[in-house]
Design goal:
Layout (H helix, E strand, L loop, with lengths): L12 H10 L3 H29 L4 H12 L5 H12 L1
Length: about 90
């Protein structure tokens, strides 16, 4: 288990009330939200750096990425694209 540090965070009362309705483990919930935001920030930084080095993503690359994210990659609608990419 990783080490932890106790901090104080100030949140609006209505958010705390809603948070307590969602979970008994407020610290764990907040820690996961922070981890998700950090991953989001790092991924955004990586994508910007990639575009600076290689140019903007094509419509096809964006469609393929969206299909992978949504779990539809490799279905009938995208199978031809995957075969075409393998042939290239």
């Amino acid at each position: 288990m990783s080490s932890t540090t106790r901090i104080t965070v100030t949140l609006p009362s209505d958010q705390v009330a809603e948070l307590r309705k969602l979970t008994d483990n407020v610290s764990g919930y907040v820690a996961e939200a922070v981890a998700r935001q950090i991953r989001h920030q790092l991924l955004g930084d990586d994508l910007r750096r990639h575009e600076e080095e290689h140019g903007s993503f094509s419509d096809e690359e964006l469609a393929e990425a969206r299909a992978k994210i949504s779990g539809t990659a490799g279905t009938a609608g995208t199978a031809g694209t995957a075969k075409d990419a393998d042939a290239a």
